[in-house]
Amino acid sequence: MASDETAGAPPAKTQLRVGRLVKAHGLKGAFKLELYTDDPDGRFVPGSTFTLQVPESSPWRGRELTVREFRWMNSHPVIFFEGIDDRNAAEELVKAILWIDQDTEAAPAEDDAWYDHQLVGLDVVRDGVVIGRVARVDHFPAQDLLIVTPRGDEREVLVPFVSAIVPEVDIAGGRVVVTPPTGLFEELPAEPDDEPAPADASASGDDEAPAAPADRED
Fold it and tell me: Which of 198 and 64 is assigned the larger pLDDT?
């Protein structure tokens, strides 16, 4: 039974990443939006408020954005926020990531979505053997990463949180199943050098030609 001190306490909160402002769109402060949610029309209704992930130097650090309008243009999501009325203001927020508070006890609305606190501490299993534990989850614009500490090792292994490498997440069972590419968790053996060592030019009596400068491929 909950104590008097905790019975009326609000539920603990965690944050869910739901979108990224890709670039300014038009002249009236709109943004093209990269979605991290399966329910954009439900998430981005007018009046919805989001916290921002921006660089420390950004004047928007610690501030929130409130949706003014969300629409689809040529199958692409476009969003307007209160107080962002022109392209110059929008440019300051390009690449910002949008987060929303969620109750920790509530299940994510999207399939194949988990809160960070649900993943941290899970065993990492490969071929039926526990090889490590999830230490934390890092979020990047391109993808999320599970940061795994291998058993008996102080290293941190960065595991892309994609279905091809993490095909199963079993919260109730306390584990994630991984099928990592060779070399992700262990060092690859050095390949044998099949080419013979170059002959010593000084032994032949010939002058050594100067080496050509290396070209760097773009």
Answer: 64
Burial tier of 159 (Cβ tally within 10 Å: 0-12, 13-18, 19+): buried
Rounded to an integer, what distance in angstroms lies between the CA atom of residue 90 and that of residue 51? 16
Q: What is the DSSP string of the chain?
A: ---HHHHTPPPPEEEEEEEEEEEEETTTTEEEEEE--S-HHHHT-TT-EEEEE--TT-TTTT-EEEEEEEEEETTEEEEEETT--SHHHHHTTTT-EEEEEEETTSPPSSTT---HHHHTT-EEEETTEEEEEEEEEEE-SS-EEEEEEETT----EEEE-STTT--EEETTTTEEE--PPTTSSSPPPPPP--SPPPP-HHHHTPPPPPPPPPPPP-
pLDDT tens digit sequence for 121-146: 999 999 999 999 999 888 776 778 89
pTM of the predicted protein model: 0.49
